[in-house]
Amino acid sequence: MSTAFGDIDGGRPTSGVFAAVDIGASSGRVMLGRVCPSTGATLETVHRFPNGVVELDGGLRWDFDALFAEVLAGLRAAATVAAGNGERIQSIGIDTWAVDYGLVDASGKLIAPPYSYRDERSRSAVARVHALIPPEQQYATTGLQFLQFNTIYQLAAEPSLDGVQALLIPDLIAFLLTGQRRTEATNASTTGMFDAVTEEWATEFLDVLGLPRDIFPPLIQPGESYGTLRPDIASQLGMPSGTPVVAVGSHDTASAVAAVPVEQEEFAYISSGTWSLVGLELKHPVLSKESRAANFTNERGVDGTIRYLRNVGGLWLLSECQRTWAAQGFAQSLPALLDAAAALPPGGPQINAEDPAFTAPDNMPERIRSAVRHNGDVLPDRPAAVVRCIMDSLAAGYARTLNDAERLTGRTAGVVHVVGGGSQNRLLCQLTANATGRPVVAGPVEATALGNVLVQARAAGVVIGGLTELRALVASGTELVRYEPVEARIVQSSSRSSTGPH
């Protein structure tokens, strides 16, 4: 039997169509996901839009009105595309970046555009928070690595929180769509006020800091429903008012890790893009002093898992170099740059890709060469040499992080899965396999949106099972590329060489 929602088998839908709102700190998109257990999951992008911070009221804030307008435009486009295919969207899921929030008053009004984590206001609150809650105590409770823009420091910098609640960005979007206030758990775990063991708010931290105990709405888990679309919103979107907004892994990395097409239980993952998040999936947090000293973080994943990871820098280095070279009149394509870099011999100079000195823009090639000189080495002033330095440095950083994660957890990963944009970089994937000494499986590129859609599909009953079943669907519908570790001398050939992926 077939309906507007999909095929029905014994009262359970066997296929479905879902809308994924996936927003990063520089851009966003709305995608239609079609899920069928027998054929896998597919994605269709229906709307893309820019996102970014603006200078407002003396600080860096998100243009949230514009952002929400783009979300509505994307959902309208999704409804139109689905209707044109005789389909109806079963639910909506939202994932974004972490830590930032909007303050909403009792009437539901957003009192000001949300601050961006790039704003410096939280820096002044760090010492005050640490005087009340020492960093060692924070880590023992939350398992969260120290970042000066963590939500706990942002809230401590607020002049007043009387009569308001803080809604993390995906929860704020869901509130405007449904009128219901909730806090999704994977994003809650990035605030610095979420107890990694009890999986509830660390109310003792709120009390010590003088924050209201209800500063955040109640917690909700991936797969649960925020509520259904408000009638006025449903009318704007051309969707039924009963359309649910489903909590997914609202922290985008949580959704990405949920879509890792794992082939075995013991695996490592690299969510590779502007930044690289390298880690293991655990059942329990690691809250030791050694873990804190190694700067690992314990964040919640889908189905109560722990994303035990460290940020290792990423392809921001490469994109910034390209931007500088283009401004200087050198506009060689990325594939050509990577081929030229792959042809260089191994053993060249490296940098620490995690160094905060590489966080800001402005002449990245020269900053990289300067770092190499500081290490007592020389990096030729040729784009290919700089690109090879970046790729070697990232691969080495991935290997160090994986070794640290295994040492601190007692786990051993037999394979490394690379998802996100970096999974398309053949040179980086091969060098990662060489550096880690284990196979690398690359793909999918759109892991975040797939994880978002699959959690929705399971909530709708289209998919039955846990992460194993969700990931099997990703593997069945994705063209994956496997890179085996090889001797470094073999990688001197072009990245198109058949000696690369297997």
TrEMBL record:
<dbReference type="GO" id="GO:0004370">
    <property type="term" value="F:glycerol kinase activity"/>
</dbReference>
<keyword id="KW-0684">Rhamnose metabolism</keyword>
<dbReference type="GO" id="GO:0005829">
    <property type="term" value="C:cytosol"/>
</dbReference>
<keyword id="KW-0067">ATP-binding</keyword>
<dbReference type="InterPro" id="IPR000577">
    <property type="entry name" value="Carb_kinase_FGGY"/>
</dbReference>
<dbReference type="InterPro" id="IPR043129">
    <property type="entry name" value="ATPase_NBD"/>
</dbReference>
<keyword id="KW-1015">Disulfide bond</keyword>
<dbReference type="InterPro" id="IPR013449">
    <property type="entry name" value="Rhamnulokinase"/>
</dbReference>
<keyword id="KW-0418">Kinase</keyword>
<feature type="domain" description="Carbohydrate kinase FGGY N-terminal">
    <location>
        <begin position="20"/>
        <end position="257"/>
    </location>
</feature>
<protein>
    <submittedName>
        <fullName>Rhamnulokinase</fullName>
    </submittedName>
</protein>
<dbReference type="GO" id="GO:0006071">
    <property type="term" value="P:glycerol metabolic process"/>
</dbReference>
<dbReference type="GO" id="GO:0019301">
    <property type="term" value="P:rhamnose catabolic process"/>
</dbReference>
<keyword id="KW-0808">Transferase</keyword>
<keyword id="KW-0547">Nucleotide-binding</keyword>
<dbReference type="InterPro" id="IPR018485">
    <property type="entry name" value="FGGY_C"/>
</dbReference>
<dbReference type="GO" id="GO:0008993">
    <property type="term" value="F:rhamnulokinase activity"/>
</dbReference>
<dbReference type="Pfam" id="PF02782">
    <property type="entry name" value="FGGY_C"/>
</dbReference>
<dbReference type="GO" id="GO:0005524">
    <property type="term" value="F:ATP binding"/>
</dbReference>
<feature type="domain" description="Carbohydrate kinase FGGY C-terminal">
    <location>
        <begin position="268"/>
        <end position="460"/>
    </location>
</feature>
<dbReference type="InterPro" id="IPR018484">
    <property type="entry name" value="FGGY_N"/>
</dbReference>
<comment type="similarity">
    <text>Belongs to the FGGY kinase family.</text>
</comment>
<dbReference type="Pfam" id="PF00370">
    <property type="entry name" value="FGGY_N"/>
</dbReference>
